[in-house]
Amino acid sequence: MGEGKRLNRKKNILLCVISVIILCVLLFPLFWIFVTSLKTEQEIFRIPPTFYPHKLNLASYAAQIETGDFNMFRAFGNSFIISIGAMLIAVVLAVPASYAIARYRFVGQKAMLLGFLVTQMLPVSVLLTPMFIMFKGMNVYNTWISAILADATLGIPFSVLILKNYFASIPKELEEAAYIDGCGRFKAFIKVLLPVAKPGIIVCAIFSFLYSWGDLAYGMTFILDQQKRPITAGIFNFMGQYGTTWSYLTAFAIVTIIPVAFIFIFMQKYIIAGMTSGAVKG
């Protein structure tokens, strides 16, 4: 028993060391971006490269809060509005759609699910032209509405595929018991089924928000005014015709990552629970 415990302990230590090494490798690009944002332009191109800034440069962060064509706080607000709008549309449409697919059998059901899978695999560049024509015809081009509707198309297929498994895993007897207690179909859906599927709904809301927050193509294509553009589009303000200001660009990237990092830190419990349950059930 003692020898077995020693072997298990050595194995655990080895696995921990390997895990730490893998973690360092994965986080090194983020570390390098952060260090680069604190360097001067001359030090960034120094050979051999330096692993910490010899001269601290905070001008790259200060420039983001200055007034001008681009303002970080305004861009944050634009991204937040677009992401929240796309998230709400994706969740409101995906929840009843996934319930109907899970509970009812109808002609074209498999084709519909295949359509959701296909849309997940299509590159964004394929959808830009037809969406551009649609938004021009709807007179919503160069507005937040166009970006919200476009970003919602990213979250809806994912949400439907995840939530379908949740609703399919809920016993029909639970729903029938609600009917016996006097609930109608809609009331049973709201009072009984939605609370059970809450982890999956939260996961779909989080990923729909993140899809919209990280989108660049739609924000650049469908919004022309700099004051209306999301924060991801602001990165092009630091990419000039004759060169790139790398310290400003990396500082902007760090600021853009902060909300995503906070979401994963504080919502990690829901993300893991929702993804694992949605993958196993059904």
Number of H- or I-type helical stretches: 13
Helix content: over 70%
Poorly predicted runs of 5 or more residues: none
User: Would you tell me the structural class of the helices and strands?
Assistant: mainly alpha
- What's the total number of strands? 0
Shape: globular
Main beta sheet strand tally, sense and closure: none
Roughly what is the average pLDDT, rounded to an integer?
A: 81
How far is it from the N-terminal to the C-terminal residue, by CA? 42 Å
Tell me what portion of residues adopts beta-strand conformation.
under 5%
Taken in chain order, the helices and strands follow as HHHHHHHHHHHHH
Gyration radius, in Å: 24 Å
Question: What's the quick description here?
Answer:
The protein is an all-alpha fold and 282 residues long. Helix content is 73%, strand content 0%. The chain starts with a helix and ends with a helix.
What does this protein structure show overall?
With 282 residues, this protein is mainly alpha-helical. 73% of the residues lie in helices and 0% in strands. It is built from 13 helices and no strands. The protein has helices at residues 2-37, 41-44, 59-62, 72-103, 109-121, 124-138, 144-169, 172-180, 185-196, 198-213, 217-222, 246-266, 268-280. Helix 1 packs across helix 12 (246-266). The longest helix has 36 residues, at 2-37.
